[in-house]
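Forum: Protein Structure Q&A
Topic: Joint prediction for protein chains with partners

I've read a bunch of threads here and the consensus seems to be that you should model interacting components together rather than docking separate models afterwards. I'd like to see that in practice. Below is the full input, 649 residues plus whatever partners are listed. Could one of the regulars post the assembled result?
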Amino acid sequence: MSGAVKFAIIGFSFAMLVISLLIGLWSKKKVTSAKEYFGSTGLFGPVAVGLSSTAAVASAFALVGVPGLIYSTGNAMNFWMLSSAAFAMAYIILGKKIRAMAEIGEVASLGDISDLRFNNNRLIKGLMSVIIFLGCIAYLAAQIKAGSELFNNLLGWNPILTGFIIFGILTVYTAISGEVGGLLTQAFQGLVMIVAGLIIIVSFFVMTGGFENVLEVVANAGTISAGDISKSFGPDLLNAWGVLPKSISMAWVIIPILGTVGQPQVLTRMYALKDPKDMPKLGLYAGLAHMVVGFFALVVAYGALYLVGSGKISPLAVADNAIFAYADYLGLYAQLFVYAAVLAAALSSASMFLTLSGNIIARDLPSALGKEFASGEKQMKVAKITIYGIGILSILFSLTSAEMVAILGTFGWGTLMSGTFPVFIIGLLWKKANSKGVTVGLLISLVLNIASLAGLKWPGALPWYVNVISLSIMATVFISLITKEEKIGEKLDLVMDL
Amino acid sequence: MDIQGKRTGIVVLIALLWGTISILGWNNMYMPGLYLGVLLMLLHMVLGVSAKQKLSLKFLVYPLLPWAAIWALSFYLSDMYANAFAGVMPSFSILGFHPSFSWTVILYWVGGMLTLTWGFIMNKDEWLSSDDWDEFKKKVALIDQKQKGGQ
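Posted by a regular:
Agreed with the consensus. Here's the joint model:
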């Protein structure tokens, strides 16, 4: 890659970073209370919330890891990437109830909803916060690593310096403007991903001539080798299931689709919506944005398979480089948008998980331990310091503990789901869900998440988190069923009947 | 449709379905697992849509049941064509895709997304009408007033 191209990519990506910073600084004006700083509660319309939700859900893994997986193992991962119906489903299941909770008490974090539902039960709030924090840190570390390595590979910069420049800026605007700036910058970054996606989708058709040519190449290419690296092709790579055990495809249908309703980045956006009656429109906007991002990942993977299978580029030494190999082949315009899109994906998810982690440390966990702040001002001050602290520690941790980040990388989606399903999904859909059931469900989730992190082996080829989620939900339901029903307040009763 | 008294049964069924799907997954019985997965999602949406212990039949008829049928059909066709062309180049393609994957694109992705999302918009009042929301807020305000008065 020539120096001029590198310069253009840096300029384009940093322009996006600077615009994000400016949006964050501007958003500070909109923050007038702790409720707005922590939750953006009831502040935004469906377009901003929809773009932000898609951007926060689609992490750097969606644009880098997913094409790599499809390149290596075929279409199974596309079930995850083409899960655009999940937004409407999430809002149908829980949208009005989560939004209604913000009408019966102060809601600026998930811990607040837990308090309202389970009568300020500290153990539930504490356990849930620890599980969500674990998932957030895993996500945050993975985004920082991906974003820093992107520029490290491109420019040969020191990863820690790169991490501090990119994610240092992100930490500053996130700390200053809280969830308000977080949501608006994510919406902007979502827009960048969509524009990049549309350009790359068009370029795919121009380059390959369409999917039929890709199928032809992949079915007939056999094995392509260059030096020590080889890639085997075959028609089964492009059937619906790919070449992984088919139970993995099953998991990659159920977990992303149903799991979307259990992601904090989706739950918190439900109460950020101004008018709950806009929830169906929100489902449409988020779903359409997700469709573009999902198709973006699909064409990149198919494009890389086509290029390698037809001998236009050498087999990839690292499958995760599929998106960069594809962009490099297409030329400058693709490189500009692909690098910016990957950075946008990393930034949007990182800012989401940074504010979530900050909220947990500065707001939910202290309250679970019985510590209340004297004022909203004081709480925001503590949160800002916490966000700076978590930001700096995460950058250092991500870039100096590669092995631990890789292990934590298996956490995230499933861990977050196992921490939120007992409290919010079962808890808000079923009045008989009681604090004993939810506590046991969360305890099982925490213990099994940590045991899985430590290497616990599960039967079959299913991803481990499916087992953890199942056991945690079953425990919540059956313990609630056999223990005494708890009386719920009048206002909560109205929410649950809505 | 009145679901009073059925809610606990549905939640227990949801818990049992999670367990069953995991066991099916351990044994690579992915097709029954996928069909039960559709049922699992449908039950969550039934609970989410129902208000005041009543499920809107209109919302069930569209979009929920067509969405469930579209997804079940998508998995069936994807598996049928994967088996029909296992290890060989398919004799035809649909939209340029392998016939097995084409149904994932057409039914699972586009069909599922449009059916559920568009149906949600078309029948939004069955999910939450302006009257229901206003009534809810009024009742909350009344309770607040009552509680303040009692202090």
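The two ends of chain B are 40 Å apart (CA to CA).
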